[in-house]
Design brief:
heterodimer, A: 682 residues, alpha/beta, six-stranded mixed β-sheet, 29 helices, globular, B: 435 residues, alpha+beta, ten-stranded mixed β-sheet, two-stranded antiparallel sheet, 18% strand
Amino acid sequence: MGEEIVDWQVETDQHGVLWLTLDKKDTDTNVLSSSVLNQLEILVKQIVEDKPKAVIFQSGKKSGFIAGADVKEFLEVTSQQEALIMIKRGQAVFSQIESLPCPTVALIEGFCMGGGTELILSCDYRVALDDTATKIGLPEIKLGIHPAFGGVVRSTAIINPLKSLELMLSGRALGSHQAKSIGLVDLVQPRRQIKRAALAMALNEPPKRKMPLIGKVFSLPGIRHLLARYMKIKVAKKATKQHYPAPYALLDVWCNYYGNNKRMMEEEANSVARLVQGNTVRNLIRVFFLQTELKSLGDKKSFTPKHVHVIGAGIMGGDIAAWCALSGFYVTLQDKEPKYLSNAIKQAHKLFAKKLKTTHQRNAALDRFIPDCNGYGVAKADIVIEAIYEDIAAKQAIYADIEPRMKEGAILATNTSSIPLETLAETLQDPKRLIGIHFFNPVAMMPLVEIVKTKLSSKKTIQQAIAFTLNIGKLPLLVKSSPGFLVNRILMPYLVEAITLYEEGVSLEAIDKAALDFGMPMGPIELADTVGIDICYSVAKNLADAFGNKVPAGLERYINENNLGKKTGRGFYQYKKGSPIKNQDADLGDQKMIQNRLVFRLLNEAAACLDEKIVDNQNLLDAGIIFGTGFAPFRGGPINYSIQTSTDDITQMMAQYGKQYGDRFNPVPGWDIIKKISPEAR
Amino acid sequence: MAVKNKKYARPVYLVDGSRTPFLKARGKPGPFKHAELGIFASRPLLQRMPFSPEEFDEVIMGSTMPSPDEANIARVVALRLGCGDKVPAYTVHRNCASGMQALDSAAMSIASGRSDLILAGGIEAMSHAPLLLHPKMVRWLAGWWGAKTFSAKLKSLRAFSPAYLTPVIALIKGLSDPVVGMNMGQTAEQVAYRFGLTRTQIDDFAMNSHFKLYHAQQNNDLSEIEPIFDAMGNVFATDDGVRSDSTMAKLAKLRPAFDKPYGLITAGNSAQITDGAAVLVVASEDAIKQYNLPILAKLVTTEWAALSPSEMGLGPAHAIVPLLKSQRLKIADIDYWEINEAFAAQVLAVHAALNDDSYCKTHLGLKSALGEIPMDKLNIHGGGVSLGHPVGASGARIVLHIAKILEFKNARRGVASLCIGGGQGGAMLIERETS
């Protein structure tokens, strides 16, 4: 017959309304696996027979509504045919729900993503909980596909396409009120009213949501073709069709098949079945799992600090402090004098205004963000983060001052990027409690945090640092204490190569274009300007001292002339309103050669890091580079890219470049490790 | 009746305190609202305390015009400071002495054994005092909203007059006495008249207030001030009402502000309209022992007195006399004085009254003048004229500062006192163990 109904609970109330509760067995999170969908199919057939007054869908999980389809099942699909069968079955279940004669209501609490959103779209009415944890979205684009269970058809049928397409193209999650304002949900209610509201909608059957007039206009043939073209141009600025086919495929499905629901539904399925075949989807799913892997490196609950003390209110210290306050911690921020806190406080106000929607939430964050030039917070802090300028004596002096005042068991962390932790630990009474917690700039946007351990770091300190990082919503990556750690170490030769190419006469625009075409989020020249040429120089010098790479001589000239990059308005490029002024007619040179030289330096350094066990394995290395630099996610990371392209081809070409351009291209011993990695072991 | 020994039944201690810089109101609402001032004053203080804010037994704040959505400003501040849901809080109002009343209420609570650890102080954001609709406007609006039909609305519209739009400035209302029909400035004129003060004397006192504050700022004598930041990151670290360039010539040019055109009280010799907050941790002996807290000073006793609203400026005299009498102390026994400078003339009048046989005999129940308060021990670091008088906060500021002076000068006894709009006076005796 069919499957046993184990994940759904069925209950009919005194009004004759059927309440369908999804509570997937043996897991904290509801996911629409094929088993869950099979059971739903059976239940829907039963509903057609039993004819209840109405059906209300809800979740039985505290964690949220439905997180989406089962991503793992995507990886198991081996052919376009198989993908199509899987997709069509999902589409069929939701279409059956849509065509049920009785009213259907979806009651949404917590996160509702992907397939979950497609389920609610197939219902007549949608009621969302009024709280900050409730988020609704269609993030399939982040995995290299687009909604396949009717999400494209149904969202563009009732919501202004400008909004629905934007939702699907960005993969953003909307809060309840935002969702209501675009028409994705009908009603937002607090917990004390939501069940009554859902029941009222089911029994009273108010008029269903219809497309607003402006949406109808945008959906007209001709106009929607223009709109699609315009949106493709916008997308192209961030993601090329070659690397990210999904957004273009989505726009084509809508543009070419809107108006004929049956055809559009078929095309929605065909489009995703095609997309799933490419490497992009595989790699983006890999990135998704890498993120999960990093999150599982520690136990959030094992260390729940309440108070963070940050010393140093520069760009990093100030932003770290603001982020921690945003994450719910009490933060005391210290610097030599009140005026050095000014910028940090201004940026904190901006961050809270951006991320928090209500006045009382912003006030609460500001109340937790405490200026503290006298350092009173040291005695109360569970973790002290030192983020002053890179000077050994100054840092050691601070440690000497605070160590006796720190709470017992409190962690002493440093955000240093270039000073060996062993050196800093030398003067401590208890070197075991020192750990590196290395943030990236800008703190609010970069998800990765390198946790730097030395031979002396105690296991407990490391675990606590990881737990702290998870508690502030960042991804922890455990790295060995070695110059540059992982990210800067691998990034620097790539940046130096870019500058070297420039010194050889290649245009700035050519260099950046080659990197952008590879899939990097920003060209290396613009990146150097953004980080700051002075900072690049000091990191380059630091790594040169350790590993013997060269430092481009030209950098000193820029620093002496105070052309430090974006922050001074001029670096390699000149800047206007934060954007570089690029010469559209610049000579693009030999793009292939340029791209190879940039990428090979990066890959070679990655191999060296793998060899030196800077991180434990190649997955963590790939994760670190993707989340720390934005390295082309659709390539799945530098090691993954090498293996997918062919390690032999790459090392052969590198050897040739070594003869032609210099020793730095000769494959390092680490490539032997990479060659041994079998494709299935990832 | 024989004078009772009116000390607090159990010892009451001031552990520590902090205040925000006092910022002059400059026409538009200032960068900080009531709650922010209270929070910014309290946070550094709480960071210094070895206990968590949840350990307070209660929070008491003085404030005369908190905004309507934060009427119990003490509770709002307590919650936002992290005291938690379980710490009760209330807000007190005794006009200009609300801050001192908060400390007295805290002391009474501790003395009675009800509480051991209290956060108390005063908060006022005078620049945020509201503009109110004129009563005629309010009546018209009620009519407009009540009109349901088109013709009723039309009728209501015809009854409207532009004069209704004139706002009522709440601040002015707050600084006027409704019973005797005089504003505060006029009561200062009254006491200046009573004691024959001259414009020169008054301006001289005002100028000195600025000098003393200016020098105190140069010498870092105001260590209880914590720098605060607005949303743009601008730092406010000093009392910004100070005029280091104050001269008799400049003050003489100012016109009388209250009794025009013949009066003596000008904007230059009156306290400024100011925003600020001052808070202290008040503790019982048990709390001091339990948390191993330092003692800044002991709050020995408080005296409240009342007199005619038309001469409210003399309130301090009416409170200081019974204060000293009940403790069997003389002027010479007091090392330092803080008498709030609501008006330069008013402080001078108090000084004159206490040194006047007739006044002391007739009104203060003494056999002869109490004596002359030494001017070099009075408001040694400036006062309301130079640093401003945020109405609800001043009472707490002067108590905190007198305690700080005793600490700094290693002195034994200090008296803090204020005149109170409406015709009252308050005085507190603070003592410190000298080494």
